[in-house]
Each structure stands twice: as structure tokens, then as C-alpha cells.
Amino acid sequence: MKLKLTLATTVLATLVLGGCASNNVSYGDAQSVETLTKDFGSTDLQMIADKMVDDMLTFPVIVQLTQNRRPVMFVDRIRNKTQEHIDTESITDTIQNKLINSGKFRFVDMTSANALAQQLAYQKQSGLVNQATSVKAGGHIGAEYMLNGNLSSIVKNAGGKSDVYYKFTLKLQNVQTGIVEWTSEKEIRKSSKRSTFGL
After folding, report:
1. Alpha carbon of 81 to those of 24, 25, 108, 179, 189: distances in Å?
2. Nearest to 39 by CA among 155, 161, 158
3. Phi first, then psi: what are they for 106, rounded to 5°?
4. Quick one: DSSP state of residue 114?
5. Which domain holds residue 173?
6. What is the enclosing helix (H) or strand (E) of 191?
7. Does residue 77 belong to any structural domain of this protein?
8. Which residues lie closer than 8 Å to 181 by C-beta, 6 or more apart?
9. Is residue 178 part of a domain?
10. Distance CA 18, CA 16 (A)
11. Which position has the higher pLDDT, 92 or 145?
12. What three-state secondary structure class fits 57?
């Protein structure tokens, strides 16, 4: 009985103290520099996207290529060769958004290809869609170029200090010829020092 009373008292105290704790939540500037840890973060993503898009749009071959038309491309996956769990799709989404908003390129979204195929099949085969309004298959535009790349890192730890070097490489490849028309890379180095407790 005494054990049950002690357990009940402990649970009640935990609930009361937990209810008294407060979380102070505030909004911050999404573009501000994030330096909580040396791990890959939002600032790194923004720096990579800005560098890649600026390099691509000012490269003479790309300037000529986009002078009178908007080439169609798709984004292949970015291979994460680091030891961290990094959402590389978020990096390519940001790069794709910037390129589309530049007005220089058009994109086909290969991540939605299966969903589009299912929708086309539904419209054609379900018997539920008025065929006068159904979308006809075979109208998709083929991509002329593919964007793909790698994110790699080298991590060193010694004497309470830690250093991480990231390298992001991106290339634009002609789908028909296989020729790499453009490539660029962005390097990032971040260091941290373990603080001594009480200092």
C-alpha cells in the first residue's frame, strides 16, 4: 500500500511540475544565419542554392541556351554521401524554385510521375470521367536536361575541437547527348569547440 501511495505521489508530482513548465516559442528570420551546431543546417542549404543558381544563370553556355527559350529539365536525386541524415530533396527543391522563378527554365517533376500516370489511367479507364473532358495520354513534354549531384563531407575531431567540411557538387547534363553542359560546387567548412562546464 505504501509503495502504491509513493508511486501515485511521484506520478502526480511529475504531472504538476510538467504542467508548470512553459515553452517560450518565438518566430525568427528564416534567412538569418543559423549556428546552433556544426551539423548541416538551413544556412548551408541557402548558401548552396544561391551559389548553384547564380553560377548556372551566369555561365556563358547557359546564358546562350536560355536566351530565346526556356529549356525543360528534371532533377535527379542528390546523393547524400555524408554520415548525417540530410534531406537533399529540400536542397533540390530550393534550387528548382529559384531556377523556375528566374524565368529561364521549365521543369518536369519526376517525383509525381506515378501519380500522374494513375490519374491518366483513372480518367481513361474508370468509366467515371466524361471522355470529352479527360486528358489524353502522350502529351507530356520530354526533359532535355537533367540536374544531379552529390553532397559529401569530411569530419575531423581532436582535442575537444570538431571540424566538418561539406562539398556540394551539381551538374547539368544533356539527356540526348549525355554531355555535361555545366557543373559547379560549393564548399562549406564549419568548426566547433566543446565548452568546459562552468566556464
Report:
1. 36, 34, 26, 24, 16
2. 155
3. -120, 155
4. H
5. 40-127+140-193
6. strand 180-193
7. yes
8. 61, 62, 65, 145, 172, 173, 174
9. yes
10. 5
11. 145
12. helix
pLDDT digits (tens, 9 = 90+) for 17-59: 555 556 776 565 555 555 556 667 678 888 888 998 999 999 9
Q: Which residues, listed in sequence order, are joined to residue 174 by a DSSP beta bridge? A: 145
Does residue 94 lie in a domain region? Answer: yes
Residue pointed to by grid coordinates 567548412 = 189
Query: What's the confidence (pLDDT) of residue 155?
Result: 87
> CATH number of the domain that 117 lies in?
3.40.50
**Confidence category of residue 194, pLDDT binned at 50, 70, 90:** confident
pLDDT of residue 198: 47
Q: What is the DSSP letter of 140?
A: P
pTM: 0.72
What are 120's three cell numbers?
Answer: 491518366
